[in-house]
Design goal:
- This protein is an alpha+beta fold and 175 residues long.
- It has one domain: GAF domain (Beta-Lactamase, 2-Layer Sandwich).
- The protein has 4 helices and 6 strands.
- It has a 6-stranded antiparallel beta sheet with strand order 3-2-1-6-5-4, sandwiched between helices.
- Strand 2 and strand 3 form a beta hairpin.
- Helix 1 packs antiparallel against helix 2 and helix 1 runs parallel beside helix 4.
């Protein structure tokens, strides 16, 4: 896939937040997510709602979405918001594949510092930093990875990791 470095007209560039502003934004986003998803059981609706509300409240989220486990050692794009996502990702490739393979969160301060095609898959060259969180169901099975990209380096840290891991556990492991 060939990706353009020109920012699409309908996507805003990222705006990083300080740690306290980031915590405040997550608290607002989580309150909205939990209120909207109360009693909801449909996994795809949950994913779409999580994407929408996190992208609304966190201005450094450029691309946000889920890659669903679609076969042995393979992810396929699921609900997302942003530019075109990669359609399929093998567990052996990229940050999403590594998160699925290792079953642990990946924080990448500069995606351009990774080996393209193996350590990182450049679906959009505007993505400069990334966090990927594995998503499990109530029985501990990996069902997806949650991927967030920013147009700025070093957008994601342990604050994002803690909030996102907690969110994924509460929303998807509870069923």
């Amino acid at each position: 896939m060939s990706a353009s470095a020109e920012m699409p007209y309908f996507i805003k560039p990222s705006l990083n937040l300080g740690r306290e502003d980031k915590r405040a934004a997550y608290k607002q986003a989580l309150a909205a997510i939990y209120a909207n998803l109360e009693g909801e059981e449909d996994t795809i609706l949950k994913m779409a709602t999580v994407n929408c509300l996190l992208k609304t409240y966190l201005p450094y989220y450029y691309w946000v979405g889920f890659y669903l486990v679609s076969g042995p050692e393979r992810l396929s794009v699921g609900p997302y918001q942003g530019t075109l996502g990669c359609l399929h990702i093998d567990f052996s490739r990229g940050v999403c594949g590594r998160a699925a393979r290792e079953r642990r969160t990946q924080l990448v301060p500069d995606t351009h510092a990774l080996a393209q095609g193996t350590e990182h898959i450049a679906c959009d060259p505007n993505s400069r930093s990334e966090i990927v969180v594995p998503v499990f169901d109530g029985e501990g099975r990996l069902i997806a990875v949650f991927d967030v990209d920013s147009t700025l380096e070093e957008s994601f840290d342990e604050v994002d990791q803690a909030y996102l891991e907690g969110l994924m556990g509460r929303v998807f492991e509870a069923n």
